[in-house]
């Protein structure tokens, strides 16, 4: 089968959707399928426009960007590649690049699949301008993606409900997965503690440093919780600008309680999760939480999760069953949840064990998608 994945970013750009597309593309290529990725030149640096990496054919097309990554517009389309595809799978209808490329694929007769993400999710965005303008774009992009797609997928039951109730269409649920490695590795807590010299109990955040991820809320919550638990620390793992968060920690007098590791390798990330009391995900907007791989990674290591009730999170994290849910943008509520798990490690173990049962690997997700591709239309060839 010839399969094409579409998104405005691909490796070497590292991020949530980018990592998902890479995992799917390489997983399908390993099974012997001819797999292509159509993406923009943004973030590729000096890499060639056309190359093959780990069996995946990458096509980077000239594009322009209107301020935001989602507003990346392709200036060309590899129609020859699209025309001969069995299926073109576009990731995120919020991406203008994805919508336009899938539209081109439809024009040349390819069968199309769109993974809908963060449907109508701009209304709680902290930026007043985005709250005003983005919902109009969001509604247009959803309607356009419905029009040009043969198969509609979601990775969030929130999005499934909105598509059904607001737009009158059904979508199939296909979640994101994780590599099997986090399920097999031995506990790596000691390696992390030794590497970074962290012996006190800590909560861990894993992800990019972005204002919608609520890292400022986490730091404020730490300042509150540390009054009751003076030895408590926070470890923040992931790429991004640390400066505003370091300044906030300094202002609150807790610089010595926050460790920023920056981007780390997989073993170090696993070690940070293993050594932590809990993963904390204090996101502040529906838009950034379509399917949290960090939550899945924590559950794979049998660690509890403390997360804001935004986006898909309350559909996966059930309060006092496999984690703790807190009101977004509420440092006091987050601090109280952190304190509960610091003081009751047995509860944390119970929640982490419960979460592990819902972990899905990439191999299973790839198998789910290949079955969907195959049954969607008889022209597909296995």
Automatic annotation (TrEMBL):
Keywords, sorted A to Z: Transferase
Any one Pfam family match given in the protein's UniProt record, by short name: Glyco_transf_4
GO molecular function: glycosyltransferase activity
SUPFAM superfamilies cross-referenced by the UniProt entry: UDP-Glycosyltransferase/glycogen phosphorylase
Gene3D superfamilies according to UniProt: Glycogen Phosphorylase B (3.40.50.2000)
Signal peptide (UniProt feature, chain positions): none
Residue span(s) of domain Glycosyl transferase family: 190-357
InterPro entries in the cross-refs: Glyco_trans_1, Glyco_trans_4-like_N, Glycosyltransferase_grp1
Superkingdom in the source lineage: Archaea
Stretches assigned to the Glycosyltransferase subfamily 4-like N-terminal domain: 14-181
Name of the molecule in the record: Glycosyl transferase group 1
């Amino acid at each position: 089968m010839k399969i094409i994945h579409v998104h405005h970013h691909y490796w070497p750009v590292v991020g949530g959707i980018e990592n998902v597309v890479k995992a799917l593309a390489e997983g399908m290529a390993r099974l012997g399928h001819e797999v292509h990725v159509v993406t923009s030149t943004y973030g590729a640096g000096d890499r060639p426009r056309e190359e093959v990496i780990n069996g995946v054919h990458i096509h980077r097309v000239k594009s322009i960007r209107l301020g935001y990554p989602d507003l990346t517009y392709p200036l060309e389309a590899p129609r020859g590649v699209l025309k001969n595809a069995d299926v073109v799978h576009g990731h995120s209808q919020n991406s203008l690049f994805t919508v336009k490329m899938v539209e081109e694929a439809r024009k040349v007769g390819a069968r199309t699949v769109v993974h809908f993400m963060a449907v109508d999710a701009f209304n709680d965005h902290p930026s007043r301008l985005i709250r005003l303008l983005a919902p109009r774009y969001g509604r247009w992009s959803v309607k356009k993606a419905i029009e040009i797609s043969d198969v509609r997928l979601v990775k969030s039951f929130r999005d499934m409900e909105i598509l059904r109730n607001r737009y009158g269409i059904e979508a199939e649920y296909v979640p994101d997965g994780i590599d099997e490695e986090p399920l097999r590795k031995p506990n790596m807590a000691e390696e992390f503690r030794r590497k970074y010299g962290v012996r006190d109990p800590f909560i861990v955040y894993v992800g990019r440093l972005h204002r919608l991820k609520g890292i400022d809320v986490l730091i404020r919550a730490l300042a509150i919780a540390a009054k009751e638990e003076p030895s408590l620390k926070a470890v923040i793992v992931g790429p991004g600008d640390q400066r505003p968060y370091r300044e906030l920690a300094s202002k609150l007098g807790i610089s010595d309680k926050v460790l920023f590791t920056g981007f780390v390798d997989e073993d170090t990330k696993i070690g940070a999760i293993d050594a932590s009391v809990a993963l904390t995900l204090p996101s502040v907007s529906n838009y950034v939480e379509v399917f949290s791989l960090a939550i899945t990674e924590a559950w794979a290591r049998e660690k509890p999760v403390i997360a804001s009730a935004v986006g898909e999170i309350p559909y996966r994290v059930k309060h006092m069953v496999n984690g703790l849910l807190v009101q977004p943008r509420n440092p006091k509520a987050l601090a109280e949840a952190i304190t509960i798990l610091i003081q009751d490690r047995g509860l944390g173990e119970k929640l982490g064990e419960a979460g592990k049962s819902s972990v899905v690997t990439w191999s299973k997700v790839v198998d789910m998608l290949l079955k969907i591709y195959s049954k969607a239309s008889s022209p597909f060839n296995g």
